[in-house]
Specification:
mainly beta, 0% helix, 52% strand
């Protein structure tokens, strides 16, 4: 369920949409990492993530949700992300691919 336009922190709009995004890890302290996230929708934010003890599950804190990811390999991360705001409820799935 979404509004016709993106929310303040929501990158998606309409019933089904896709985005091109870039996440760059800027700092790491043990299992805690910080990244700068930007998308073609013009949204920029800093996120923090924690890698679980299994070394493959990742939990993010974003401005409007808590994405859960699974590290599939050195080059692929599977992402499930839910956003909930006053006027948007969004769930998305995708793959992050390492670009060197």
């Amino acid at each position: 369920m979404k509004d016709e336009k993106s929310g303040e922190y929501t990158h998606h709009e309409g019933k089904i949409s896709s985005i091109t995004a870039h996440a760059e890890i800027t700092e790491q302290e043990g299992w805690v990492q910080y990244c700068e996230f930007s998308s073609d929708k013009g949204m920029n934010e800093i996120r923090i993530w924690v890698i679980e003890l299994d070394n493959k599950t990742v939990h993010f804190a974003a401005m409007d949700g808590f994405p859960i990811c699974e590290i599939m390999s050195d080059d692929f991360i599977h992402v499930i992300c839910g956003h909930i705001t006053d006027d948007n409820s969004v769930v998305v799935a995708g793959i992050w691919i390492r670009v060197l």
